[in-house]
Write a structure and sequence with these properties.
Blueprint (H helix, E strand, L loop, with lengths): L7 E5 L7 H13 L7 E5 L5 H8 L4 E4 L16 H6 L4 E4 L2 H6 L4 H14 L2 E6 L3 H5 L3 H16 L7 E4 L13 H16 L3 H6 L1 E5 L7 H5 L6 E4 L6 H14 L1
Parallel strand pairs: 1-2, 1-8, 2-3, 3-4, 4-5, 5-6, 6-7, 7-8
Helix pairs in contact: 1-2, 5-7, 7-8
The chain binds 2-phosphoglycolic acid.
2-phosphoglycolic acid (PGA) binds next to strand 8.
């Protein structure tokens, strides 16, 4: 079965691999990506490495930031704008990761503003949504996911296929507790259906990634689901073999 959308596998290194290890890993991943690869491969190193990683991957691997500020410039000490990330070689930016929402108090409104800023500058956002364990157990999964999606969907609708959405159940991130293929597919299908309410083209072209304890040995089952178009990978993206195992699973379904 081939996928209706080109698979996207993105590695979110978080606060890891920030030295020579990161440069070496990026170079090694680029060496494994083919010129005519059937999968889009993206890495999101710490911001301090973006420029150098962009140079070593030489366009074979997409480079993503892990965060962006919503303003283009100004007195915002310590922040980076979308234009600056673009200049550092980024094509992508992860927005609204649950760790940003949880530890840095990012709200749905802020996620919307950041998504708009990224798109305006020409970056492709990977916008993260997902419920906590308490929300899932209270039967509120779709309510939460829809609320988070509705917050920014008006911003992505005019550029169908540019932004990706990552469904990452918070209880599955870094816990080893992956959602079952059916649990993930159910939410992905609901997200796609919600997008269809905005525009058929947006629904058809938007890549919806699954994230949360994706590993080489569970990736194929997830990627085989109709509405799962790729993966946002944390822990398993920090080493070449485990990351390429997931990329290879995506190549099988592409
Ligand atoms: P994990 O992280 O793969 O380590 O669960 C996923 C993420 O946070 O994007």
């Amino acid at each position: 079965m081939s996928k209706p959308r080109r698979p996207l596998i993105a590695g979110n290194w978080k606060l890891n691999n920030g030295g020579q290890d990161g440069i070496d890993l990026a170079r090694a991943i680029a060496a494994e990506v083919r010129g005519n690869d059937s999968v889009d491969v993206v890495v999101a190193p710490p911001a301090s490495l973006l420029h150098r990683v962009s140079e070593v991957v030489a366009g074979k691997v997409g480079v993503s930031a892990q965060n962006v500020h919503q303003e283009a410039s100004g007195a915002f000490t310590g922040e980076l704008s979308a234009g600056m990330l673009l200049f550092a070689g980024c094509k992508w930016v992860i927005i609204g990761h649950s760790e940003r929402r949880q530890f840095f108090a990012e709200t749905d409104e802020l996620v919307k503003a950041k998504t708009a800023a990224a798109l305006k500058a020409g970056l492709q956002p990977i916008v993260c949504i997902g419920e906590t364990l308490a929300e899932r157990e209270a039967g509120k999964t779709l309510e939460v996911v829809n609320r988070q999606l509705d917050a920014f969907s008006s911003v992505i609708k005019d550029k169908p296929g540019v932004a990706a959405i990552a469904y990452e159940p918070v209880w599955a991130i870094g816990t080893g507790k992956v959602a079952t293929n059916e649990q993930a597919q159910e939410v992905h299908a609901a997200i796609r259906q919600r997008l269809a309410g905005i525009s058929a083209e947006l629904s058809r072209t938007t890549r919806i990634l699954y994230g949360g304890s994706v590993k080489a040995d569970n990736a194929l089952g997830l990627l085989n689901q109709e509405d799962i178009d790729g993966a946002l990978v944390g822990g398993a993206s920090l080493k070449l073999d485990s990351f390429m195992g997931i990329v290879n699973a995506a190549r099988q379904v592409a």
